Amino acid sequence: MTAADAQLQPRKKGLTRRQKRSLSRGVQYVVFVAAVIAFAVGADWGRLKNQFAQWSIAKQMFPDVITMALKNTVLYTLSGFVVGLALGMVIALMRLSSVGPYRWLAGVYIEIFRGLPALLIFIFIGVAVPLAFPGTEIVGGTYGKVALALGLVAAAYMAETIRAGIQAVPKGQMEAARSLGFSPARAMVSIIIPQAFRIILPPLTNELVLLFKDSSLVLFLGVTLEERELSKYGRDLASTTANSTPILVAGLCYLLVTIPLGFVVRRMEAKAQEAVR
Question: How confident is the model over 77-87, as a mean pLDDT?
Answer without folding.
Answer: 94
